[in-house]
Amino acid sequence: MKIAPLLLALSISAIPAAAAPRRDSHAFLEQGRWWGVNVSGLEFKESLPVRPQDIDFYADAGAKSIRLPVKRARLDTPETLAALDALIRRGTARGMLMVIDEHSYGNIGDPEIRDFWLRMGRRYRGQPLVAFDLQNEPKGGTWVSWGPDARDLIHALRKAGVDNQLILEWRGWSGFGRADRGEPPKRACESALCSLNRGGIFTLADLDPLKRTWLSPHRYFNRGGSGATPECRPYPATGPLGNSVKAARKLGMRLYVGEFAFGRAKTVPKTCQAMVDDIVTFFRATPEVVGGAAWGWGPRWSKTYLFRGESIGDRAKSWDTENGWLIRSLWAK
Q: How far is CA 51 from each of CA 35, 57, 130, 161, rounded to the nearest angstrom?
């Protein structure tokens, strides 16, 4: 009797089947076009609230993401946290990506920022449509410290079980042109890519064990990109905008454009009108760009604010303005 083949067959049948690959519940975020607006109010000194019906106003117009600027020092009571919860529930129920933006301009290596995100992580983890913008336009520290500090913060959150999509900004106002300056080895770092690389961070996996972090450039189109004046300075979209895309490609990362603006409800300057089509086409045609949020929206801005997006009085007319039409052109499928 030949038992060897029989034993071989039995041994093969006894090998447990390989476990099916675990489905990434956040993978759909990489495929979407998460364009929307910043809805300000929670970051203001007078703590003017943003209401759930404000979220509906933008969702009804077609927005797919809302960036909510907040100050961590003001999210310190059960009432303010409950108000934030209500906004998050309304937005995610409408299928929107809700981005909580820590808008304090702090040092990303600050232990208080880490503690804040650990608290937010405990509150919102397990919700793929809730993303954390770790620090708006960070200041403090140095270019040398920024990259390692960002990695250490992200690793601390992942170690604590925080699984949300993370969004990372850099020094220099998170400007498009500061993503990569091609610094030679002996020159001091003045860009995000240089800081990351010199900190031993060459890929998304080096930065984030879950590979769920996007870079977030900001861009205003006046001279210098400060957003302090309304006019736009014409330049090819492949200039500073392309700089960020190249940096993202080198790292294997995506971009969420956290702030940009073309004008205000009343008018879009002619210098901006001349370049908007190229910018919109660039954003929509670049696979690394997963979305972004136009700055200056929310009903709490003053009537004279440079980038106020909403019309005074009847806010529904906001979408009939040239500025409203340009913003919504990014939302088209």
A: 20, 10, 17, 30
pTM: 0.91
Q: Where are the domains of the chain?
A: 32-330
Contact (CB, 8 A) for 125 and 106: no
Contact 146, 172 (CB under 8 A): no
Strands 165-168 and 255-257: what pairing?
Answer: unpaired
> Rounded to whole angstroms, how far apart are CA atoms 223 and 239?
13
CA neighbor of 280 nearest in space, from 325, 222, 227: 325
Do 234 and 275 contact (CB within 8 A), yes or no? yes
What is Dmax (Cα atoms) for the chain?
95
CA distance 208 to 80: 30
pLDDT along the chain (333 residues), means of 10: 40 41 78 92 81 97 97 91 96 98 97 98 98 97 97 99 98 94 95 98 99 96 82 74 92 97 90 87 92 94 92 92 91 79
Does residue 107 sit in helix, strand or coil?
coil
Distance CA 222, CA 97 (A): 29
Closest C-alpha to 35, from 295, 306, 317, 305:
295
Which H or E run contains 243? helix 240-251
Q: Hey, what CATH topology would domain 32-330 get?
A: TIM Barrel (3.20.20)
